[in-house]
Description:
By secondary structure, the protein is mostly helical. Helix content is 63%, strand content 4%. The protein has one domain (23-177): Arc Repressor Mutant, subunit A, CATH 1.10.10.10. The chain has a two-stranded antiparallel sheet with strand order 1-2.
Amino acid sequence: MNKAADVAPKKAPKNEVLSDSADTKATDSAAQVLRHFRSVFNAVKTHFQQVEKRAGIGGAQVWALSAIRAQPGIGMNDLANALDIHQTTASNLVRALLKLELVKTEKKGPDKRAVQLYILPAGRAVLKKTPGPFSGVLPQALSEMDPKTLLRLERDLSQLLVLLKADERAAKTPLAQL
């Protein structure tokens, strides 16, 4: 009797080897993608911490303040659209900016219910000492990506969101408030 034959492991059929190899590659890829997400979240978190430390207000407030500066007289709905957030979230941001006396509201035009927003000198001073980009590092990086890459990323992330059974309402929450 051949002792080496008794001790040698049995060879798996070829299709099992391929399956194990594919599973290992998928596991490695999943781990790598998870690391990428961690790096993205860390970059976003670090940026917003720097913003808050330097500006004294949160990143979402800085972005709103910069949008108001860029479009003097902007209305609440247009501000919400500019930041891609829900209108009530925009209202809450503006309420905080008003309380800090960084912006002011005026009611002009035929509809006296609609307010127009204007930055005050104190708001300009906050933006001067705030590290950019005001919209945040992730929106800035996404805006610099190739359109084809963005489309592929959007499709792939949509699949991930389905698997996560993610709450679609969270999509309108500013990253700085997560």
